[in-house]
Amino acid sequence: MTAPILAAASLCLVATSIHVVSIVVAALRLYRHAPRNRPPEQASPPVSLVRPLCGIDNHAAETLSSTFRLADPNCEILFCVASANDPVVPLVRALMAEHPDAAARLLIGDERVSNNPKLNNVLKGWRAAQHEWIVLADANVLMPPDYLRSLFARWRSDTGLVASPPIGSRPRGIWAEVECAFLNTYEARWQYVADALGFGFAQGKTMLWRRADLERAGGIEALAKEVAEDAASTKIVRAAGRKVRLAAQPFPQPLGRRGASEVWNRQLRWARLRRASFFACFLPEALSGGLLPLVLMAAIAPALGLPRALSVISLAIVWYGGESLLASMAHWHLSLRYPFCCLLRDFLLPILFVKALSGDDFAWRGNEMRVQRPRPREMMALVRPRLATFAPVARRRLRSLRERMS
Fold it and tell me: What are phi and psi of 48, to 5 degrees?
C-alpha cells in the first residue's frame, strides 16, 4: 500500500470514527437527561422573560402565543421591538389582549449601544426586568409549558448561563429540510458533544442569566464586546470561572418554508460569527462533513480491492444512517429524504468554510453588519493556547465521561 493511499485511508477512518463517536456522545447526553416519569418539579423562581422581536417569522403567532402558556405563574413577559411600525406589533398587542391576566408588556424603542441590532433591542427589556433571573429568548422559539423549569433544572452552583440550541421542526420544502440537517444533527449534535465534555457554549436562541452575574461583568452592555451576543456571553461566563450548560432537551423552532438563499445566508452569517469569535474552534469545520471521506473512499476503494460503488454507499449509510438514528432517538424531524439533505449540507460545508474565511460582511434582518478578520499573526496567537490546553483537558473529560457511562 502506497503512502498516499495509506494516508487517505487513515483520514477516512479517523473522520468516520470521530463522526460516529460524536453521534454516540450526543445521543447519550440527550438520553441521560431525558425526562422519565419524573414527579412534577417545583415552580421556578420569579423570572423576567425578554423576547426581542423584528418582523414576522413563519409560525410567529404560534411561537409568541406559547409565551403565555408557560406553567410558571411568576413570569414577567417583556416583548421588545425597535419600531412602533414593525409588522409584529399588532400581533403582540392582540396576544396580550387575549391574555389580560398575564404580566406582559410591549417595550418600543431603539437605544443603540452596539452594532448588534438584537442586543440594542434587548437592552430596554433587561433594564425594565423586575426579577433577578432573566431569560433572553428569540421570537421564533416554540416554548413548551415546562420551558422555564427545564432551564432551571440544569442550573448548578458553578453555572453561569443555561442555553439551548434551536432544533428545526416542521420544515416545508427541500431547503427547509437542509436547514434541519444544519441545525439538528450537525450543529446541535456538536453543541451537545461540547456540553458533555464540559466545554458548553451559549447560543442566543435561549439564554438564562442571573442578573448579578452579568452585572459583575459590566452589565448587558458587556455583550457588545463581540459582534454576537452569545459569543460574548460564553467568554464572560468562562472568564468568571463558571460553565455554560445546555438545557436537557433543546427547544424547537418551526421552520415552515425556506428558500435556498435564506438558508445559505443564515449559515454564512453564523459561520463568519464563529470565525470571528472562536477562530481555533472554527478551523476544524473544514473537515467536519462527510463529503471528503466519501470522495477519498471513491478514490482508494479499487486500490484496497473493494468495489467502489458499494464502498461509497456503505460509508454513506454509516454517516447519514447514524445521523438519522440520532434524529429518531431525539424525536427530531426525520423523513425519507433527510439523509440526502444531510449529503447536500455536507456538499455545502467546504464552500461555506471558504466563504466564511474570505468575507467579513453579512446581513441580519435587513441590517448590514461586519466582522473583523484576524491577521495571520493574530490567528496563530489565537490557535496556539487552544492547542496547548485542549488535548489534556479533553482527555480528562473523556475519561470522566467513560467513568460515568460505565
Answer: -105, 120
User: Is residue 165 within 8 Å of residue 246, measured between CB atoms?
Assistant: yes
Instruction: For residue range 299-324, list pLDDT tens digits in order.
Output: 999 998 999 999 999 999 999 999 99
Q: Which residue has the higher pLDDT, 362 or 354?
A: 354
Rounded CA separation 109/53 (Å)? 12
Pairing of β 75-81 and β 159-164? unpaired
Percent of residues, the chain, with pLDDT higher than 90: 76
Question: Given phi > 0 = left and psi -120 to 50 = alpha, else beta, which region is 55?
Answer: left
Could you state, in order of their start, the residue ranges of all structural domains in the chain? 3-31+276-399, 45-165+203-257
Q: Is the pLDDT of residue 165 over 70?
A: yes
Summarize the confidence of residues 57-69 as an average pLDDT: 95
Of 255, 144, 152, give the one whose Cα is nearest residue 210. Answer: 152
303: its cell numbers: 486500490
Q: Which fold has domain 45-165+203-257?
A: Spore Coat Polysaccharide Biosynthesis Protein SpsA; Chain A (3.90.550)
Average of per-residue pLDDT across 338-349: 97
CB contact at 8 A, 41 and 153? yes
Cα–Cα distance list, 400 to 34, 84, 98, 242, 392 (Å): 20, 52, 50, 19, 12
Task: Report how far residue 382's alpha carbon sits from residue 131's, in angstroms, rounded to the nearest whole number.
Answer: 38
Query: Strand (E) positions, 54-165?
Result: 75-81, 104-108, 133-137, 159-164
CB 104 within 8 A of CB 122: no
Beta-strand pair 206-210/159-164: antiparallel
- Strand arrangement, sheet containing 47-53: 104-108, 75-81, 47-53, 133-137, 206-210, 159-164, 243-246
Phi, psi of 373 (to 5 degrees): -90, 120
